[in-house]
Amino acid sequence: MSKTLFERLGGTEGITSIVDDVVENHMNNPAVKVRFLPYKEDPKNLAVIKKHTVDFFSAGSGGPAIYKGRDMPETHKGMNINPSEYMEVMNDIFAALDKHNIDEETQKDVLSILWSLKDTIIAK
After folding, report:
1. Cα dihedral sign for 112, 82, 99, 20?
2. Quick check: pTM over 0.90?
């Protein structure tokens, strides 16, 4: 029996570490950091966002988590994210996956998920 995506990403602990690195990557990425740096000054809200992100990816990858946040269009409403920013965010995610030595097949599965979410996030 093959492992779930959740298991291949390292379970809750692995996904949490990946999310931490993704957020750090976003905060250092000149193309998108303006959207993320304000959260450095609001650590309580940042922790909530990270928790929602971990739960979202855990639930969506076969883990036991239950995502209780808003749906993607509602979450990104009014942000007017453009396709270039979305690609930058994806690059940051894949840099974090590489850092955590996530294999190519698992990265392809993550890409599939991210690509399926694109139209629910861009220009909302």
Report:
1. negative
2. yes
